[in-house]
Amino acid sequence: MSILRPLICFLFLCSLFTCQSTEQVAKPEDYTGPAFPFLLPEEKPDRPLSAALERNYDGYPAPQPQANELYSQFKYTELKGFDYNDHDGTISRRDPSKVIFDNNKYYVWYTYRNTPTSPQGADKSNDTIPSADWDLSDIWYATSSDGFTWEEQGVAIPRPPKPAVGWRSVTTTDILEWGGKYYLYYQGFMETSGKRGDDCPVAVSWAESPDGPWTPHSKVVIPNGKEGEWDQYSIHDPYPLVYKGKIYLYYKSDFNKKPNLVRMQGLAIADNPLGPFTKHPLNPVISSGHETTLFPFKTGIAALVIRDGNEHNTIQYAPDGVNFDIAAISSLLPNAGGPFIPDAFTNTKNGRGITWGISHFTNVTTWAQNHAALVRFDCDLSQDIHDPQMKAAHVYFKPETYYQQGLSQKQRERIAAENKSLLKE
Ligand code: AAL
Fold first, then answer.
1. Domain ranges of the chain
2. For the chain, how many helices (H) and strands (E)?
3. Alpha-carbon gap, residue 225 to 366, rounded angstroms
4. Residue nearest atom 1 of ligand 1, based on CA coordinates
């Protein structure tokens, strides 16, 4: 018995080896079956596929954008009710919060700057002259009955006196409803933006009503990382949602060095709106983006990843709120979009998605009159509406839009030198 067992094993292994070495494994390029069908299969077909076709079936919620719940175009409408001083750069409204519906109206909060001049850069800035568009700002709010015409209600969170967190500027806010109270998270600048970089932590104020009064927590609630960590200088764009019974607050940090600044998104989780927040060990959780818009979708979290990084202009989805994959690629994504998300704070396990919100344009006029303006965006990233116009995969731009992306003088000179180098003596 003791001799037989190893012998049987040996013979078995030999037979396996012989089988493998003689077996003909068909290579995908030797496939001789029917060609890819004219009618696009809804399910991944059982045949060899190129890498692109594998990805088209495995990487996206549907093989065509029209059927992809996370694909949409974006339509924009100018808002009524906001004055910008003839767009001379002295008034700016930017970085809107999510929109909420309360007291039978919509509410939005945003960065509001009203300064004697437009932004002048860090070197020329002082106690009244802003360095950047969001310097020397306060947080204001507006209400609306239809989402198109807004009534500005005034300040929600003013800059506190020095040296409190945010004394230089309070900006880029977002709203959380939790336990019957309201919390506004915002960037609290304690030095002029642009002196070193755009450096700040996040602070929070709370209120019993969306109309305030707002009580500052007066402490940093999401601190910068330790020296040498990716988020050591800035915590930007705080964005709280309620997910898995906790507060999931996403944020951006600027890191690496100029001129190759990197922007990625992190996540901090808390059981209490005033903290402590625990930063996720896998941070950064989104490799790209800037002023990222997020919302509960199905069992996970979806994100509009705009500007910056390899994956800009994508709509991503993380079934667990942490591990994001590209679900769609689109164009003209809203900058700093703050959507109306009816289930942002309901701890939903089947997020319904979004159809509109408020975003901003930052290049409204010239650089000398630099300021931003709020704008409405509409889309179909919702399980509940099916708007074929929003699902069309191409957007037509007029020639002016392309010509606005003109060559610089330096590029012209390079091309002229290339032309010259081709000339024969
Ligand atoms: C925006 C946001 C943050 C930055 C600044 C104001 O793009 O990312 O808010 O600090 O610009």
1. 75-394
2. 5, 21
3. 36
4. 291
The C-alpha atoms of residue 118 and residue 129 are separated, in whole angstroms, by 8
Residue 79 DSSP one-character state: P
Amino acid letter, 399? P
Strand partners, 249: 240, 268
* Residue of minimum CA distance from atom 9 in ligand 1: 172
Residue 26 DSSP SS3: coil
* C-alpha of residue 172 to centroid of ligand 1, in Å: 7
Instruction: Identify the residues whose C-beta falls under 6 Å from ligand 1.
Output: 95, 134, 171-172, 187, 198, 236-237, 252, 290-291
Per-residue pLDDT of the chain (425 residues; tens, 9 = 90+): 444 455 444 444 444 444 444 456 678 888 999 999 999 999 999 999 999 999 999 999 999 999 999 999 999 999 999 999 999 999 999 999 999 999 999 999 999 999 999 999 999 999 999 999 999 999 999 999 999 999 999 999 999 999 999 999 999 999 999 999 999 999 999 999 999 999 999 999 999 999 999 999 989 999 999 999 999 999 999 999 999 999 999 999 999 988 899 999 999 999 999 999 999 999 999 999 999 999 999 999 999 999 999 999 999 999 999 999 999 999 999 999 999 999 999 999 999 999 999 999 998 999 899 999 999 999 999 999 999 999 998 888 999 999 999 999 999 999 999 999 999 97
Q: Which CATH class is domain 75-394?
A: mainly beta
Strands (E), 42-115: 75-78, 91-94, 100-102, 105-114
Q: State whether the Cα torsion 57-63-67-69 is positive or negative.
A: positive
